[in-house]
Amino acid sequence: MALVPVSRETAALFDRYVALLEKWQKIKNLVGPATLAEVWTRHIADSAQLDALAPKAETWVDLGSGAGFPGLVIAIMRREDPDFHMELVESNGRKCAFLREVSREFGLNVTVRDGRIEDVLAGWTAPVDVVSARALAPLSALLGLSSELLKTGAIGLFPKGQDVEHELTEASKYWRINALTVASKTDPKARIVRVEALAPNPSPPRS
């Protein structure tokens, strides 16, 4: 956690979180087995760095939350903010069970929504400050999934790897994007795409 310093209390909760993840991983296979050995850098710190990119956000929607990266990590960091609420969207039932268990045990202000992203977000009307997704889909697809939130004022935070410029180029064929990239603290080749405004490209390529 030297990459993304947190308080001792938060670090202690992260210890408990990792212990629960390791316990459930033996039965539920929540994350890629090869990544568990690097859980602190690969998952915890990599997720925690997003917090500083939206410090005033009160309502955060995390798509494809999996084992809670980045959604649960952010919720743990914001646990003492009474105005903060995290929405975790995940279609895998066993992962939803894990998300609920951690949220309950830690007393987090979290709602776990068990379902496909398209179904959960259909007709969504509540204000959203941030929408995030990590290791879920190419950027163009992420923008499509979250477009209704992004077009109504939410910012998007999407960690990406070394192919980020290619993904931005592909996405620009379908979307007019106001975005910037932020260097990742955990991987020199990675970037975080911060989408600040989005609109459909009036002249998308023909299929």
From TrEMBL:
Q: Which keywords annotate this record?
A: Cytoplasm, Methyltransferase, rRNA processing, S-adenosyl-L-methionine, Transferase
What high-level taxonomic lineage is stated for the organism? Bacteria, Pseudomonadati, Pseudomonadota, Alphaproteobacteria, Hyphomicrobiales
Q: Which GO MF terms are attached to this record? A: methyltransferase activity
Q: Summarize the protein's role.
A: Specifically methylates the N7 position of guanine in position 527 of 16S rRNA.
Q: Keyword Methyltransferase: yes or no?
A: yes
Family, per the entry? Belongs to the methyltransferase superfamily. RNA methyltransferase RsmG family.
Official protein name in the record = Ribosomal RNA small subunit methyltransferase G
Q: Which Pfam families match?
A: GidB (PF02527)
Predominant cellular place of this UniProt entry's protein: cytoplasm
Family matches, as NCBIfam families:
rsmG_gidB
Task: List the EC numbers from the record.
Answer: 2.1.1.170
Q: Which GO terms are recorded in the biological process aspect for this UniProt protein?
A: methylation
Q: Where does S-adenosyl-L-methionine bind?
A: G64, F69, I117, E118, R134
| Signal found in the keyword field | no
Catalytic activity reported: guanosine(527) in 16S rRNA + S-adenosyl-L-methionine = N(7)-methylguanosine(527) in 16S rRNA + S-adenosyl-L-homocysteine
Q: Where in the cell is it found?
A: Cytoplasm
